[in-house]
Design brief:
Elements (H helix, E strand, L loop, with lengths): L18 H32 L1 H26 L7 H6 L3 H16 L11 H11 L7 H10 L21 H20 L17 H27 L4
Length: 237
């Protein structure tokens, strides 16, 4: 059910009501508010199914608007007892301002994706750039290899298929292996507590397989539910 931000009624109760009538009126107002929120969530779920990327962007923009609104309300509430923004900034040194700007830009650059955004091309490109940040490019070796091999950039019409071709140095191979091992070690150290239900069916062999099965079930679960039930009962044809 959608979260009801305010439990107060949307309109004032009529005058002359008894305590029980007042309570009943408030309950009806809360039911109407919950019904309205549920309708909005159903409409949002339909939009997510039809346009997941657009809906994720819309939800993110709405969340940013709510945060901005809360900050504005907080600033207005504290405006009387606080100093002006210009006065505060006038006491910030150049070094402090540069540090604040670098910290802000770094935070925006490393901002974690959420929802459907973790699968888009921009997030994949950022992950790729992050992985190759530690790679040292040897421009001289690259130019030398390109000069020695006339078919350095081969296409489908090349007759050099199956030949040895370019062979990286042992140092480059070890660097690649170390990067993969380091990435695996970071993945193993990453942990986030999730709710475990003892009554759930165990259809996985490890945590990664469990996560993969959940993603598959979200995408195709409603279409394979009958087949899965028939297989479990042993009545599948």
């Amino acid at each position: 059910m959608a979260d009801v931000e305010g439990s107060s009624s949307s309109s004032a109760a009529p005058a002359g009501l008894s305590a029980k009538q007042q309570k009943l009126f408030e309950l009806r107002m809360r039911m109407n508010e919950g019904r309205k929120k549920n309708h909005q969530e159903v409409a949002a779920e339909k939009r997510r199914a039809q346009d997941p990327v657009g809906e994720a962007r819309r939800q993110r923009e709405m969340a940013e608007e709510r945060v901005t609104k809360k900050r504005k309300e907080k600033a207005e509430a504290e405006e009387g007892g606080e100093e002006e923004e210009d006065d505060r900034l006038s006491r910030v040194t150049l070094e402090q301002a540069e540090g604040m700007e670098k910290k802000k830009s770094k935070k925006e650059k490393n901002k974690a994706a959420c929802g459907w955004d973790i699968f888009n091309q921009d997030s994949l490109y950022k992950a790729h750039k992050k992985r190759i940040a530690t790679v040292k490019v040897d421009v001289d070796a690259y130019k030398k290899a390109k000069e020695e091999d006339p078919e350095f950039y081969r296409d489908a019409n090349s007759l050099a298929y199956g030949q040895q071709g370019f062979q990286p140095s042992q140092e480059k191979v070890e660097a690649m292996v170390n990067e993969l091992l380091d990435k695996q070690e970071k993945r193993n150290k990453f942990s986030r507590r999730r709710t475990e239900h003892e009554d759930d069916d165990v259809d996985y062999i490890n945590k990664r397989n469990q996560h993969f099965n959940k993603k598959i079930d979200r995408a195709y679960g409603e279409y394979t539910k009958v087949i899965k039930e028939n297989l479990e009962r042993g009545t599948a044809i």
